[in-house]
Amino acid sequence: LSLSDSSRELFSPSQKYQLLVYHADSLFHDKEYRNAVSKYTMALQQKKALSKTSKVRPSTGNAASTPQSQCLPSEIEVKYKMAECYTMLKQDKDAIAILDGIPSRQRTPKINMMLANLYKKAGQERSSVTSYKEVLRQCPLALDAILGLLSLSVKGAEVASMTINIIQSIPNLDWLSVWIKAYAFVHTGDNTRAINTICSLEKKSLLRDNVDLLGSLADLYFRAGDNKNAILKFEQAQMLDPYLIKGMDVYGYLLAREGRLEDVENLGCRLFNISDQHAEPWVVSGCHSFYSKRYSRALYLGAKAIQLNSNRNRQEFFFPAYFLVSKLLPPKNIQSSSRAIRLAPCRLDCYEGLIECYLASNSIREAMVMANNVYKTLGANAQTLTLLATVCLEDPVTQEKAKTLLDKALTQRPDYIKAVVKKAELLSREQKYEDGIALLRNALANQSDCVLHRILGDFLVAVNEYQEAMDQYSIALSLDPNDQKSLEGMQKMEKEESPTDATQEEDVDDMEGSGEEGDLEGSDSEAAQWADQEQWFGMQ
Fold first, then answer.
1. Which of 89, 240, 372, 442 has a Cα-to-Cα distance from 134 of 20 to 30 A?
2. Neighbour-count burial for 351-377, b at 16+ CB within 10 Å, e otherwise
3. What number of other Cβ atoms are within 10 A of residue 154's Cβ?
4. CA 211 to CA 227: how far, in whole Å?
């Protein structure tokens, strides 16, 4: 480039244009995006000057004399690269402006795809739908464009109609219409029908053991609150693909919640060996730190995951990453959860995070408004009923409403742990311990959960069933050795006076009354020696 500036006769205008593009491409790959934009702009100016020249100036010296016009970089491709630079710099408006400047007929599918994603991110849904449809018109099997349309509330039947011709013309594509139907259910929040439809797809021989379907199925089970099946599907997916990263953040979060911290640590190490430029490894390590009570490290890792996800311009919502940040920085959670709801309006966990934050800041009214909106948006299922009941429990006026909502939730899903926990909390307030014990025993008949065992232990203590309470605390700790509340309950019981201790004290009193002081005098000196040793050990 310096040579071409010093001697204009050394390179032809087309060669100068090509040099500028090569230089800009190199800067782009070195992540010098602002510098790359500057050089791409210079290249476009050179191209404009070149198009005004009817003849290509012949080159002299050692430069190649072959015609360059046939292999020059496309002006459209240069503008696409500029848009990529702007997105990496988080200047989405400039990226949209560059791509909008390309005439519609000259836009390639990847340009329309980038425009659709940028419009969607900017909230321009109508323009985004138009661009996604243009991608499908050119590439009817572009699954990302199909998912984009479904995420913007375009009806599944309308999307399927755009692929009907290709399905009829190519053999073994009959699964595509069912696939579209399944993800239409996903984006409308109908988790049950989505699970059933994807299961029917997964059973077909052509799509059996498909890792993407298994990952979607695991995520749906997680959304539906069925953590056991979610873990099973994630395990199945990673066995099929040991290098799988997508969805492993949720898998690590679920393992951490179950107290399987060693498995979480191993998973984090494995993911870091695959790539440290994805959010998932950082999330998994953050969950391990959080449940190991290393909160400062967990906060750093969660924030790093959100930053990485943002830098890579991905639209996926990383619930565990937001979970870490919101748990450790509650005031920040309102902003984070609001953004999460915009990214994933059909995910209940987004709303749960925001409602948790409102309750933590004693903003019950805002929490109630949000819970009612969720109830209306996602329908009356066990999860939304429980979420609304959780807010109602915070206000003494709405206690009865909470009870009704929880009864409805448990009628729909008797094994839904969150509903059982909230109903037990309500019964504890009313001091209906026998009813609470019956509820918890029924819930534990077909599943084993640390929290349920611990609450059952608390209820048994309230009715003086100390031995069984101790058993329940032991079971809870065997499921999660880090459960502090179970440990506290057990330690409190151990401090309580046992019947054998009382009997021994009575025996001592009898001995004192009988005048047998001689035998006890020696024991007093021994006791003093043991007390000194115990004090020393305590200091150590």
1. 89
2. bbbbbbbbbeeeeeebbbebbeebbee
3. 19
4. 18
pLDDT band at 466 (very low <50, low <70, confident <90, very high): confident
Query: Can you list the pairs that 109-113 forms with residues at least 24 positions away whose Cβ atoms lie under 8 Å?
Result: 109/135, 109/138, 109/139, 109/142, 110/80, 111/76, 111/80, 112/138, 113/142, 113/144, 113/145
Q: Could you give the number of structural domains in the chain?
A: 2
- Let me know the angle formed at the C-alpha of 392 by 387 and 393, rounded to the nearest 5 degrees: 100
Domain ranges, residue 187: 169-244
CB 328 within 8 A of CB 298: yes
Q: How confident is the model at residue 445 (pLDDT cuts 50, 70, 90)?
A: confident
CB-based contact 239:269 (threshold 8 Å): no
Whether 52 is covered by a domain: the verdict is no
Q: Closest Cα to residue 452, out of 479, 417, 427, 483? A: 417
Is residue 188 domain-resident? yes
Clarify whether residues 232 and 268 are in a common domain: no
pTM score, two decimals? 0.70
- 97, part of any domain: no
Which pair of tokens denotes residue 215? 């990952």
Tokens representing 311?
A: 């830098």
Q: Cβ of 534: how many Cβ atoms within 10 Å?
A: 10
Report the half-sphere exposure of 157 (CA within 13 A, side-chain side).
0
- How far apart are alpha carbons 330 and 322 in whole angstroms? 11
Residue with tokens 């572009």: 142
CB burial of residue 266 (10 Å; 0-12, 13-18, 19+): middle
Spell out the SS3 assignment of 351-386: HHHHHHHHHHCCCHHHHHHHHHHHHHHHCCCHHHHH
Farthest CA pair distance, the chain = 127
Q: What is the spatial distance between Cα 412 and Cα 503, in angstroms, rounded to a whole number?
A: 51
Token pair recorded at residue 54: 């009817």
Which residue among 295, 328, 361 closes a domain? 328
Given a contact cutoff of 8 angstroms between Cβ atoms, the answer to whether 452 and 437 are in contact is: no
Question: Is the residue at 238 inside a domain?
Answer: yes
304 and 270 in a single domain? The answer is yes
Tokens of 8: 């204009």
- Do 232 and 269 fall within a single domain? no
* Residue 138 and residue 109 in contact, taking contact as beta carbons nearer than 8 Å: yes
Check which CATH number belongs to the domain holding 235 and give it: 1.25.40.10
- What are the tens digits of pLDDT across the range 157-180? 999 999 988 888 888 888 999 999
**pLDDT tens digit sequence for 114-160:** 999 999 989 899 999 999 999 999 999 999 999 999 999 899 999 99
**Hey, what amino acid is at 514?**
S
What tokens does 11 get? 């390179």
Query: Helix (H, G, I), strand (E, B), or coil: what is residue 238?
Result: helix
CB atoms within 10 A of CB 495: 7
